[in-house]
């Protein structure tokens, strides 16, 4: 018996490849009808999306030269959703790609030990907030940077960072690093790149480690910033190494076991931004990931108010794709 039916399907479509900062007008929300029919004996699944993670890597896929070569979809096997006592949205955040990246990047690349001074940039983001907590579990002294005083407060008061600073305040990154790292940096977890990396190199200690997770400050630039202080790699005997969580998907079960226990014991926290409605996807992407660039004033206002009320930095975009 054919039990298929026609369903309304909403999509956010990229209208133009993006150069520089993406704009809301680069996206369009389209609606169409689709059939839920799955041919007999097919192993296909009909999937209803409830949550969509808004992640920085999406920006790469919007660029003409990169988007041709990337697979259409990289997703976690639904079989991984085996714990149901946590919010479903966690599978797009702490139990998803950002969580795995934080776990792999910190454990495989940082060689952190008790007493080490660890610096995490973009520390209030999905990856950074977890790296900071993992480093605290190892007994490190952890400092994070972010772009607002509210997020600085969040890092120190709720996420257990020893110290945090607003990298935009005073426009004096060198001074801020000097003040917050009087004894230098042993481990730098790099999420930002550009000028941040250049300045941090000067503050690294002998035999320091730099785990390169991402360089979000560079994603919208036509020409990436140059790095001038690479000689520090030699003079300070630094190890700097990049990674991609894509190479470690086999570690997902191990990571889930590790994280779920800590989440249940409330020893590992995760704060999320959740926007509702697929029509808000583009605005949410621009506000959450690329900074306050949204053209939609009302959306930005709603979000700002919501964040103020919650006192949290949340990051998952929630939408109902098929209704
Ligand atoms: N290697 C991997 O496998 C892997 C996997 C996932 C993510 N990543 C990378 O990890 C980094 C963090 O990802 P995430 O998921 O944690 O991101 P996220 O939660 O979406 O956070 C993005 C944050 O980046 C900061 N940011 C945006 N533009 C910036 C700029 N021009 N300069 C400095 N900071 C800027 C903003 O925070 P502030 O308000 O604090 O500035 C923004 O909220 C990204 O670079 C991403 O590409 C790597």
TrEMBL record:
InterPro entries: ADH-like_C (IPR013149), ADH_N_2 (IPR041694), GroES-like_sf (IPR011032), MDR_fam (IPR045010), NAD(P)-bd_dom_sf (IPR036291). Keywords: Oxidoreductase. It comes from the Eukaryota. Residues 126-259 form the Alcohol dehydrogenase-like C-terminal domain. Residues 10-67 form the Oxidoreductase N-terminal domain. This is Allyl alcohol dehydrogenase.
